Amino acid sequence: MFKKIASVLLRNRNGILIGTIIGVIALLSIVLVKGVSFTTTQAQLLPDDDQVMINFRDFQHHFGKEDNVLIIGYDDPAMQQGNNFQQWNNLLDEIRKLPGIEGIFSMTQAKKLERDTIAGGFVLTPIIPESDHTHWRALRDSLHHYPFYESLLYNQDNDAMQVVIYMNPKIMDSQERIREVLHINDLVNKYSEQTGIPLYLSGMPVIRTMNSEQVKGETILFISASLLVTSIIFFLFFRSFRATLVAISVVLSAVIVCFALLSILDYDITILTALVPPLVVVIGIPNCIYMLNKYQLEYKKHQNKIKALQRMIIQIGNAAILTNLTTAFGFFTFVFTDSSTLQEFGIIASLSIVGVFILSFLILPAVYSYMPPPKERHLKHHRKNLINTILHSMEDWVFNHRKFVYIITASILLISITGIFFIQKSGNLLDDMSKKAKFYEDIQFFDEQFGGVLPLEIMVNSNQAQGISSINSLERMDRMSEYIDSLDISSKTLSIAELVKFAKQGYYGNDPEFYNLPTNQERPFILNEIRQSQGEGNLLKSYVDSTLSRARMTTMIENMESSQMESVISDIQTRLTEIFPPERYETYVTGMAFVFMKGTDYLTTNLFISLSLAIFMIAVFMAIMFRSVQMIFIAIIPNFLPLLATAGLMGYLGVALKPSTILVFSIAFGIAVDDTIHFLAKYRQELKKNRGNIALAVKNSIDEVGSSMFYTSVVLFAGFAIFLFSGFMGIVALGGLVAFTLFIAMLSNLIVLPSLLMSYEKLTTKEFIEPDTDMFDEDVESEDLEDLSSLS
User: Fold this and answer.
1) Neighbouring residues of 26: CB distance < 8 A, sequence distance ≥ 6
2) Which of 29, 429, 535, 613 places its Cα 20 to 30 Å from the Cα of 729?
């Protein structure tokens, strides 16, 4: 097959090169005209038919979104000095005027309930008249008479205060939300600079916005860094500026293809799809290394440039198409998950990898056919050097110390399997965020002072009209609130029960001694006063539905370890069932933090399934290529070793199992198996060439393919190590773990794989050496090989 491909590529090099350039320019035009946008929506990890997702949608249907709240906090008595408080009020007025802001709730807006003795019901009146709003201490001290506002606006133990800002829910998934949050952030920073009072900004809109802005910044940074690092390493290996420029042109063209695919398919750039362009660079350079290395080796043999290119295409092509397909399929398996985020990542990554493979074969042979042949300095790295010394040392281990190779391998496996038992799961919404980021420090402030910023909701359905306003239901909700508050992991739990307490306090002249649930005798007339309340006085509408059959209980939980969060929410669910008998009430826990935790669990399971599918399909591909089931077992063993070693390392280092770290195994396996395929393809060529001499075939394979494997492994190691500088902890873990996995995979494929081939000679069957049918024609010495030397 590749004989014909080589002939077509070299005979039609002019048209292919021009067509490729035009095609890449056309795709670039699509990107420039149509554009590629960064995501503004929250990734949905759960499928629509999952019960947790159904509950979440049900909650939003009855009470709206709960992720549109921003919080600004401070803890500095200097607020009462000079005109700091006046500037603070000016800041809030400026924020209030922004088009995306629906309202602000601060201590100057704090109100009390008073009975309307004429019209009936309650009316809201300011706790302190507007004329006294310049007195910060008086305002703050007045709030202490109203327990309802404790942890909602103030911390009763110190001077910490917070302001709640409500954004328009309609802009939460738009660019307007990003603009508004960034504007508020600038205003907050400006105030801190002018007054010296540190302000803290948080809430889900802030967390989402700062995340997306970091993704935007890192996308360009990592593309540039991956190009720079891989180009430098490529040049150090081949000592040629022209060769380096050709390799860069290939991967840059592939990056354009990647962005064009995003644009054509209308996919936004997410934290995962932002990884694809630098991945294409890191994976594309090894293609160029294998091709250039083979070209130079062939040219060194017979000094014929076109013949060297022809043989390069034929001998590298059969292995390259399978290695790129296996890598692409490793990513494509994400399409079989039920997560749209992972599906988009899988589609873009797999198509981009196929694209970089095609571009490599379209561009490199055509360009090199016009370039002068390699000079002596370009071929120096094929002679005795440090890499060859390392390869000869590996050969010595393979031929003379296989027993020690197996002992070391078994020891690594034992240590790794032990480490796997220490791995913990993580489903924390904030787990992947940079601990050094300013907004993460702000989150810690709210955790310490007010209980947290992550929304957690409870829905209570009494299944009967007015059922939620019964004294029995109110007492149950109060008991549930007291239990949650006793856990000391959240802000104050708000519900209709707290509002009724607030109303009772208002009914009795706002005496804080009456901030408790009404008795059976008090309940009818206090609830009647609440129902008669109009406008702002009707506080119930945010916490109950129109029929008073459903109620929400809302709180903000602190950032905590995933295992602790699972335990806490499990305890809450258990207590919920105890307090609200299932035969009378329907209840469920929901909210952003809970949905994300469950989504992570779901994603973890799906990623393991996709990894298993990738391993199975790659084994099938290899079986088709090598026509030997026995050889598949030999090939898979060296690639399982690095995966187990990485899993063990995660356990010992305390790296949690989460979507970003599970991706490591699919990505690393798809790439690592490439070296195995290249080695076995060369091994089979050498077996046919040397009439079944296994020792000689293994030695020649290490000598020729080993250098390319070493070069590509260094490039991949350095390329993925770039992600260690990410602001996202998940990406840092992914980069470091993939780099480690590929390093172990290189050693495994250059030492363990050849050792197994030497030890189990019977597995090298006749079907492997000379299959009955071979879709990959490898014989470059045959007489029917077309003479293309005239193209020189």
Assistant:
1) none
2) 613
Q: How confident is the model at residue 311 (pLDDT cuts 50, 70, 90)?
A: confident
Q: Chain centroid to CA 594: how far? A: 18
Q: What CA–CA distance (Å, rounded) separates 44 from 349?
A: 19
Structure tokens given for 642: 């690095």
pLDDT for 108? 81
Mean pLDDT of the chain: 84
| Strands of the sheet with 161-167, listed across from one edge | 101-105, 161-167, 69-74, 200-202
Q: How many CB atoms lie within 10 A of CB 653?
A: 13
Handedness of CA 429, 433, 435, 436 (dihedral sign): negative
pLDDT per residue as tens digits for the range 211-221: 778 777 787 88
Q: Which of helix, strand or coil describes residue 103?
A: strand
Round to whole Å and give the CA distance between 116 and 592: 39
**pTM to 2 decimal places:** 0.77
Q: Is the four-CA dihedral 689, 694, 696, 700 of positive or negative sign? A: positive
Strand partners, 154: 150, 161
Length of the chain measured in residues? 792
pLDDT surpassing 80 at residue 409: yes
Distances (CA, A) of 215 to 433, 664, 692: 11, 19, 53
Q: Which residue is associated with the tokens 């492994």?
A: 713
- DSSP state, residue 490: B
Q: How many CB atoms lie within 10 A of CB 710?
A: 21
Instruction: Write out pLDDT tens, residues 520-533.
Output: 778 777 777 776 65
